[in-house]
Amino acid sequence: MRCPLVVASLVAGLSLAACGGATTDLFLTSSGDGGVTPGDASAGDDSGVTPQKTTYAPGCPSTIPADGSSCNAGFGLTCEYGADPHCTTMATCASENSNGTFVWFVTTSDASCAGNPPACAATFADVPAGQACPVDDTCTYPEGRCACDSCATSDPNIGTQWKCQTWDTPAGCPEPRPLLGTACGSEGQDCAYGGSCCSDVNVGPDMLCQSGYWVENGDPCECGVEMCGQ
Q: Model pTM?
């Protein structure tokens, strides 16, 4: 797995999951290309749904760039693609080493978007929240997403438990959730689609309307391991 070089964040609130699962600020940049209005922003998405035309920030390619392909220095940028805002592909331009080389880091949608694994319950309501589960499984449903998360036992050891979160839209924020890198009209609007800072289930990013486009608003936070059954 390639790991981007952690240098500094050029745009407040931009973050990316680094190797090992930690969230860290990166030296982010765009390619410097002009803004695009692609006819189908869902390249690589197999949902079969054709989205409306979407205006992207300058620097966002019209289709998903190849992972590891070069991008030029500029202002911080993450571009998101997909017809379903719960199952998207993200491309972030970041520095991979100390020589100033910038490449696209592409993160594909949650694996359960292609179909829930056998360990998943048939419906969201049937998921046994708080009960032990296999490691690393996630389950996507119309109501929300569930994940098999680590938890602490009284031994003390590390156990696992199902955690679930619904798809939520903060009051006054767009529904469906807009894509990162697309145009917005309410400067400074903060929309916490991802829920609480320490949420263990990935239901989307926290977003900020900045300079006319949606960027990720990932404020750092320290989160401890929950006790199993909580």
A: 0.74
